[in-house]
Every structure is written in structure tokens, then in C-alpha cells.
Write the C-alpha cells for this entry.
Amino acid sequence: MRTNFSRCVVALCLTFALVACGGGGGNPGTASGSAGATTGTTTGTTAAASKLVVSVVDASGTSVTGISLGTGFSARATVKDANGAPVAGKTVTFEITGSAVAVLIPTTQITNALGIAEVAIAPTSVSSLGAATIKVTADFAGVAVSGTTDFAVQSSNLALSPLTVTSASLPSGGNTPIQVTALIGGVPAVGVPVNVTYTASCGKINSQDTASGGVSVTTNGAGVATAVYDAVDAAGSLCSGAVTVTASSAGTASRSQSISVAVPTANAVVFVSSTPSQIFVAGSGALDQAIVKFKVLSSGGVALGSVPVKFSIVTNPGGVGLGAAGATAPVTATTLANGEASVSVFSGTIPGPVKVRAELVSTPTVFSESQNLTIASGPPSQRFMSLSAETFNIEGWDIDGSSTQLTARIADRQGNAVENGTVINFTAEGGQVAKSCVTAQVNGISQCTVTFVSQNPRPAGGRASVLAYTSGTKDYVDVNGNNSFDSGVDTLINVGDAFRDDNENAVYDASVSGEFLIPRLGEAACAGAGAPFPSRADTCDAALATTVRQQAVILFSSTNPVFEETSATAGSVVFKLRSSTNTLLPLPAGTTFSVRATNSNTTDSLTCAVDQSFGTPVPNVQPGTDPAADIATTGVVTLKECVSGDFVAITVTVPSKLSTTFFVSIP
């Protein structure tokens, strides 16, 4: 920053000096042999008769031995021949040797009619001090002529005027312009930029924090450095009392001024958040506590710390506690440095909305109330778990990637939607299923969907078990009607550990490779169960919490059909469509069949034709819970005017478009 400042100072000063000196025209009123001048030395016959005298002159043309900032000074070279006559039109070159305390602009000039050439000279910066040498050279027919003179850079007498503030008394969070004038030799530093650094004991200057260092401001063309003071620090805290603002600049005494800032007054309370916005009834086994947060602000909208706030319950559906479970008395807290104060809210046994009020202890009419805090009935309930499949019998035995959508719908024990974002997990015996989905309410109903696709492994029998599960609660009989589970009073409907019943025998078989188990370490005796809600026997406990679960079975139907004729008469043909590999299974859902009847006797007056067909397309077939059940699809074709000897062609087309034709003769 100092380097840029110095360049700016030099440029402006030298410009001023050039204007004052009239460029290279010299000062005809000053003798070339004045005090401080040095005669040049030469070599060669022609050059020996020439004279080059160097001097430093002020704005009036008087020779001086020192320069300072703020007035125009020039380096002058006077060139004369052997007869003492001025040499006009001669190019001379100026340079400073020794300490870089001053600069020259420009560094070359042509002598005027009086043999004089001048360039501006000025201190490098406001703080420059010391001595140096000016050397001037000229060329005469190839022979160099030079001259030198010494000079000093003297103190520029920089000072700052008293610091002024527009308003020495500010309201809380207020601001005011401040300014100071840079003086050189007792007059404003017009055209000379000066860096001024402002600091404040509290608050900001030009919206910048001064705690770690000052804020630099450069004076304008009139020598004035203007800034704005704000009575709010970088962290947003309000200043109060006496604040000291200081202006300083290198090489001069600083200036300070005191500003009186009023003590902040709280006049607003705003609701910030309820975290989470939904909790569950006490005793449900789910989260039953929320943190409600408010903020206290000043009239300027700045957060205020150390302000007492009183909390109270405005809306209580039943048993809600403030600060502690079951406590309903008001609670007082003090705001933190960020202006926030919070209180814990504990659920009761009745679901419904809760509203908390926060008011200033000093001014109860200044208050705010919480928003969107709700007590829900509870977490997912085993009794309200439901898993459905878009299609059960997919074309999955021979084809990878045949898909179906599995949708889990879940509610609490009151049949109400559970909290959005409840994670439902999935695991499959065969094929592939997405590992989880997150519930969202669709028309107020909690649900989520995953995709299941066919691939290896393909279980024997073509039945792939899929288990959906999540954390939740068992059901219970609320004997005392308080909507809360009371151990020893209410009747718990117990279930054991959830598992995936791959072989569908209603028993968890540790010896069966791959049967998935979710242990909860219960050891109490209880009956086991199979699909759709598999439960391992003798793994119960007295707790309400459990793994909510449901199992579905996806059928891997074959691409190749098996046609089985059940009966054939002149009036109808009844048959079954089976999967070729697993013949107890139907063909894939969506399989169609078309029928064509052929009259074998063209001499009679009858025309054998198809009347109606039943069973096409193949529907979505529920797998049931018995893997030994025959669930192949039945097809029926009714005929008209057919007799013995006629025949029927049945063409079966599966979803992958493979078609197979079967022929049935009418006996």
C-alpha cells in the first residue's frame, strides 16, 4: 500500500512542479552560477571549452540545497560554450545517484535559448528523508560532458487536523460520517494523496471491522479523508457507551474523538425454529422432545444478548411439558450473545399442535409464538404396515431386468401418516431390490416405492421372498385409555425377531443359507409366524419397540409356456398356462392368447367358430403363502357350431413377444 501511495504522491507533486517551472524553459531571472551549482567536467578539445552547471531551484527559481513535499522544485542544468554563450537545443540527461529519496520527471530535456533545461524533482514519499546527488550529462560531438550537485530531502511537515464527527451522540446501532484533513506545512495537502488509517474501540469503519487492524482511507483532492463509523461490530453485536475513534498517518501524531452510543433496547422477539417440528406422544418409543428457539432484537434489528425471556405454553393438547416432562409452569431464560434463547418441549400423551410463547420479562407486551410444532400419534406401527407389488408374476426366470414396483405404506397406531423421511429397508432372497426408500405423504398418506428386477440368483421354485422393514412399535390394547403404553397395565401384542422366510415354512431356519434375521436380543417365550409378517419364536421382550416388517413373494415366471389341456368339447376348450420350468407358476402377467377355430368338414352347413375367450391377458397373480399351491392360470374358449373333428389353434404371446401355438382337436 505504501509503494502505491508513494508513486501517487510523486506523480502529483512532479506534475505540479513542471507546471510551476514551465517545463524546460528555465528561469531567466536566475544566474547559472548561483550557490549550490557545480561546474561540469569534460574531455576532448571541443568539449573542454563547454560548461555544464547543475543546481536545484524552488518555484521562484532560487537555488536551494534541499527539497520538501508540497511546493514545486526543479533540477536545472545550464549549458554554455567556451565563450560563455548559452547552448540552445542541446539534449541533457538527469539522474539521481545514491539514496532513492526523490524522483525526477522526466529524465531528459532540451536546453532553451538561455541554455537551460529543467525537470521536476520531488520526494519519493511523504516520509522520505536523506540526501542524494543529481547527475546531468550531455553529449558534444561524441564527447560526454557531466555535472553534479548534492541536495537533501527535508521533512514535509505532515500533520492531521482535529478529527470531526457529524454526530457525537448516536442511538444504538447508529452511524455517523467522520473526517480528518491532511496538512502539509499547515495547509491542506491539495493534490497530494495521503493515507489515513481509522480505528474504533468498538464498531466498524466503512463497514469493515477494525479489531484486527485499521481501515485505510486516502485523502481526496482537497486533502480530506472521509469515512463512516457504525456502532455495530463485525459479529453483529451492538456497541454502547463511550467509543473512541482514531485517525493516524505515518510520520505524524494521531487524532482521536469520542462518540457516545446509547445502550441498546430490546423491542422485538421473533420465532426462529422448532427442532424437530414434529415429535411423538410420550411412551411411543419415538422422539418426544423438541427445542424451540426465539431471538430478541433491538429497534435496529440487531440481536441482543443477556436479555431475560419468559416462556409459556399457549396451546397444550394434553400433558405437554415445558423445560421438563410434565412441567407446565413458565420458564425464564437469558439470551446468548447471538440474541437467541431456547426451551425444551416434551410431548404428552395426546397428539395435536403445540404453541409456545416467548415474551420479554421487562415488557410482556413484546412477545412471539412458535409455529408448526406438532405432536404426532407415534412411529410406524406393526399393525399398520402394508407392502404391495405392482406385478407379482414377472417374466423373470429366463430374462434379466424384468421389473416390478414394490410400495410400502406405513402409519402409526392411530392410522395416521408417519413423519416424512421415515426410512423403509428392503432385502431379497433372489433378484435385486433397491435397499431402501424414504416415505413422503401422497395425498396425506405415508408411502414410498422401490424397484425389484429379475436376475441371479433365481430361487428354486421361482418364488423370491422380499422383506420390507423399519423401526417402529408393536401394537397394544390401551386398557386405561391414556393413549400411552403402560407396562403392566396395557396388553402388549408381542412379536419376535423379524426375519425373511425364504423357504416359506413359517419358521426361522438358521441352517437355511441366506435367511435374513434382524435380532433384538429378546428371549421371552412367544409363538412364531410366517409370511406376511414373519416372527421368530421365543425372541420376544416386554418393550414396545420392535422391527416393523412385512414379506412379499415375487414369482419368476418362464418365457416358455406349458400348455395343459383340461377338457375339450364341441362347445368349449378349457386349458392351463404354466411356466415351463416351474409348472406350478402362471405365465407372466400380460401374457395374451388368441384362438382360431378350423372347420374340418366343409360339406356340412356348420361353421366352427370361436364364441368367447376367457383368461387373456394373464392377470397379476397373488402368490399366496403356500409354495406347493398350483396357481397356474386357467384359460377357457367357448365355441359355436363345432363338431368332432374340428380343431382349435391357441397362440400364446408372452410380454417379451415370443409366440407359441398349440392345437386342440375336438373329440
Q: What stands out?
A: The first helix runs from residue 2 to 21. The chain has five domains: 2-153, 158-261, 267-375, 382-555, 561-665. DSSP finds two helices and 54 strands in the chain. The CA atoms of residues 533 and 550 lie 5 Å apart.
